[in-house]
UniProtKB/TrEMBL annotation:
Single GO term (MF): deoxyribodipyrimidine photo-lyase activity
Keyword flag NADP: no
Protein family: Belongs to the DNA photolyase class-1 family.
Protein name according to UniProt: Photolyase/cryptochrome alpha/beta domain-containing protein
Positions bound to FAD: 356-360, 406-413
Pfam families found in the cross-reference section: DNA_photolyase
Source organism of the structure: Anisodus tanguticus
Obligatory cofactor(s): FAD
Keyword hit for Magnesium: no
Superkingdom of origin: Eukaryota
PANTHER family (alphabetical): BLUE-LIGHT PHOTORECEPTOR PHR2, CRYPTOCHROME
Length: 439
């Protein structure tokens, strides 16, 4: 430092004193702020950041806001059974500790009108906070065909209505309900999904050409709405994923099919849930009425005989509960009555044609699964169940081998239908099958 040059001395002093002054100033301002006046910091935060529940409650209770209107136009008829959805202001959603659960999902019931052994139903409730079960009476399934006949006759329609009604009662007994609509599923399901804020649709796959096309429409529409569609398989004794061959390589004759699936393990049945989660709180969707034959364009008098009483066909009561009762009764008969074979090889047992008549309507509607039937009869008898007994008739003679014979025929027809009705299947070889009955 040069004492004769004061300007140089002043230039060198700031670097020595500024850091000390800066540190002193910072400490003197930070400490009083956090320890002496905390209310000034937290009080404004309470006013500026209200909780979600309080803000939604104020929105719902305020009388200054106009009623909420749906942002889409309903395409369902003005018939009372086709009422459009009324959307009320949103309710606060229920908190969840499981982030992986979907907030809401829809179960689309088709030919699986049961709560027992229903993988689709159980998966939806295990993966969602709330679930909306839905059944659609598709207008395309009713009316006259090009040949002039009813697409769905009055007997089948009555059986279906009873089955849907029974399913609703079963769901209600478990804390849920069934929403019923008349309309095209690709339209109804989208409207309901928007109403309840659903994130996915659960359903069982079907096999016919029209049903496969319907599934394609559903997937296309739901994809546009950013909704996931999850399909399951539950209409046969053997699961399609367990077959020892690809579906497109399935044998086209029953004998070849039976040989390939011989010894294949049947999956265990799925127990019905005792308690179901409630319906989604958003949307306030009305369950709707179950239609009558008149609502479906059918004549109720067609199920009546000339004496004014119901005919024999109309005496069959649809529904899962009726199916389970008949199954238990049939299992008891199997256990109590031995199979007596006559000299000519015929039998005087409860199997054969009587077997199909007693069970097939409920199997066709999905009120009873083939696996449930297999399990119940296996538990109720000590006889060995095998896919083939080694007899020339392929196991169709006596005993519970007849059960496997019938159910395998049923599997064959459903798998072969699925093979040739796939939407992307352009050509197919002819199907060959020997004469036989199927449950």
């Amino acid at each position: 430092m040069d004492p004769k040059n004061p300007e140089n001395q002043e230039d060198q002093q700031p670097p020595l004193t500024l850091p000390i002054a800066s540190i002193s100033f910072a400490l003197s301002t930070i400490l009083p702020t956090h320890f002496l006046t905390p209310p000034k910091i937290y009080k404004p935060n309470k006013l500026k950041i209200p909780t979600q529940i309080s803000s939604l409650s104020n929105l719902t209770l305020s009388s200054s806001f106009p009623p909420t209107k749906p942002n889409f136009k309903s395409t369902i008829s003005s018939n009372p059974l086709h009422n459009t959805l009324t959307l009320n202001p949103l309710r606060p959603s229920q908190p969840s500790n499981t982030a992986a659960l979907r907030r809401a999902s829809i179960i689309w019931f088709r030919n699986d009108l049961r709560v027992h052994d229903n993988e689709c139903l159980n998966s939806a409730y295990n993966e969602s906070m709330s679930v909306l079960p839905v059944y659609c009476f598709d207008p395309r399934d009713y009316g006259k065909s090009s040949s002039g006949f009813d697409k769905t006759g009055p007997y089948r329609a009555t059986f279906l209505i009873e089955s849907v009604s029974d399913l609703r009662k079963s769901l209600q007994a478990r804390g849920s309900d069934l929403v019923v609509r008349i309309g095209k599923p690709e339209t109804v399901l989208v409207e309901l999904a928007k109403a309840v804020g659903a994130e996915a649709v659960y359903a069982h796959r079907e096999v016919s050409y029209d049903e496969v096309k319907e599934e394609d429409k559903i997937e296309s529409v739901m994809k546009d709405e950013a909704l996931e569609v999850k399909y399951f398989w539950g209409s046969t004794l053997y699961n399609v994923d367990d077959l020892p061959f690809k579906l497109e390589e399935m044998p086209t004759n029953y004998g070849g099919f039976r040989e390939k699936v011989q010894g294949l393990e049947v999956r265990k049945t799925i127990e019905a849930l005792d308690q179901l989660k409630g319906l989604p709180t958003r949307g306030d969707v009305e369950p709707g009425e179950i239609p009558s034959l008149v609502d479906l364009g059918l004549n109720p008098s067609a199920t009546m005989g000339q004496n004014g009483k119901q005919t024999a066909n109309a005496s069959l009561v649809g529904g899962e509960n009726e199916a389970l009762q008949r199954l238990r009764k049939f299992a008891a008969e199997c256990q109590a009555q031995p199979n007596k074979e006559n000299k000519d090889g015929t039998t005087d047992s409860i199997y054969g044609a009587n077997f199909s008549c007693k069970i097939s309507p409920w199997l066709a509607m999905g009120c009873l699964s083939p696996r449930s039937m297999f399990d119940e009869l296996k538990k109720s008898t000590s006889r060995t169940i095998s896919a083939a007994s080694g007899k020339k008739d392929g196991g169709s003679g006596t005993g519970l081998n007849w059960l496997m014979y019938e159910l395998l025929w049923r599997d064959f027809f459903r798998f072969i239908t699925k093979k040739y009705s796939a939407a992307k299947q352009n050509s197919a070889a002819p199907v060959t099958a020997c004469v036989g009955s199927a449950a």
